[in-house]
Specification:
This protein has a single domain, classed as FAD/NAD(P)-binding domain (3-Layer(bba) Sandwich). 29% of the residues lie in helices and 31% in strands. It is built from eight helices and 16 strands. The structure holds flavin-adenine dinucleotide.
Length: 308
């Protein structure tokens, strides 16, 4: 039996991939499935998730980075996934028990009055130390824009805000160590919904345990993007659990660990020298950079943009 602790995107995708091979239960403490987030990922990550195109809400070839009226353009290939719909659909097909707290004890998991025994997969979000950022995002009525716009503010040290337009709605949000509401870009459209959450900036530890998602700490440091790591580890983890072959999982986890460690260090530098880093907008104003692989390997993107 497989016991997946956590019914977020990581746990649900893992359980879906294991389901036909054995009995799998997902235990989640939330009452309902379907967490909203911006859902921006590279097309490569999208392919790794093994999900259908019906979950693509928007596709983008360009990101505009803006600071004090100066822009830098990134040519890329990214998609916005409807992550809440994906979670709801996956959850409807799986054996899930909720809302209940799972407590692992050796090879067993205690969940309320039940005790489950089997292989435990932790997909329960980040549980360790981190520098926490606050994120908030509004869905508004759609606007006419063909690219994602990301804003940087000298007062929002280490943070940023964004507009993500899709045909049916626009997402307008910000992350900050301070109050993100201060940095929400003005979009003169009716607000339809609000969501948000805490985003950990984690210095990851290398571990060889069946974990996936934010639980691993392998989260893109600057943006808080956790779906990239899920895409990378999903099928290696499934192979490990199904065939007992852990080599791919360990190899990919080590590579992710190296990349995220780099990102963490670079982000710390950025935070310390924030006003200086923003000078890149004076130097690179109106320039355009190609960033396909770099969208995921942020350490390369930061090196591309910053005179570090
Ligand atoms: C505003 C915002 C915007 C974001 N935008 C992006 C983006 O554009 N691209 C991107 O890649 N990432 C983005 N992220 C990050 C992304 O949301 C996370 O990386 C992602 O949610 C990680 O998924 P997960 O399944 O690992 O963890 P979670 O979604 O946190 O799921 C973990 C689940 O485990 C459950 N749980 C925890 N402990 C227990 C327990 N003991 N027992 C039972 N259940 C438990 C929780 O209830 C939860 O349902 C964003 C985050 C925020 C807040």
């Amino acid at each position: 039996m497989f016991i997946v602790i956590g019914g977020g995107i990581a746990g649900l995708l893992t359980a879906r991939s294991l389901r036909d091979r054995d009995k799998t239960i997902v235990i989640d403490r939330r009452r309902v499935a379907g967490k909203e987030c911006t859902g921006i990922i590279s097309r490569t990550t999208f392919k790794f998730l093994g999900i259908g195109k019906e979950y693509i809400e928007g596709e983008f070839k360009r990101i505009e980075l803006v600071h004090e009226g100066r822009s830098i353009f990134i040519k890329t290939d990214i998609v916005k996934v409807d992550r809440a719909k994906l979670e709801r659909d996956l959850a409807s097909e799986l054996w899930i028990t909720r809302p209940v707290d799972a407590i692992p004890k050796g090879d067993a998991v205690v969940a309320g009055n039940e005790v489950y025994r089997g292989a435990i997969i932790k997909a329960w979000g980040w549980k360790g130390n981190a520098k926490w950022m606050k994120g908030i995002e509004f869905s508004t009525e759609p606007i006419n824009l063909d690219r994602i716009v990301v804003y940087f503010d000298v007062r929002n040290v280490g943070g940023f805000s964004w507009i993500v337009p899709t045909p049916n709605r626009t997402l307008v949000g910000a992350i900050s160590y301070d109050d993100p509401l201060k940095f929400i870009p003005p979009v003169h459209r009716r607000r339809l919904e609000v969501h948000g959450g805490a985003i950990p900036r984690v210095y990851p530890k290398m571990k060889v345990e069946p974990e996936i998602g934010d639980a691993t700490g392998l989260i893109k440091t600057f943006t808080g993007g956790g779906i990239y790591g899920i895409g990378k580890l999903l099928f290696p983890l499934v192979k490990w659990m199904s065939e007992g072959e852990s080599a791919d999982y360990i190899k990919i986890r080590k590579a992710l660990h190296k990349e995220v460690t780099r990102q963490y260090r670079l982000t710390r530098l950025l935070e310390v020298g924030w006003p200086i880093a923003l000078n890149a907008f004076r130097l690179l104003k109106d320039r355009e950079f190609q960033a396909i692989e770099e969208f995921d390997s942020h350490s390369k993107l930061l090196r591309l943009l910053l005179p570090l």
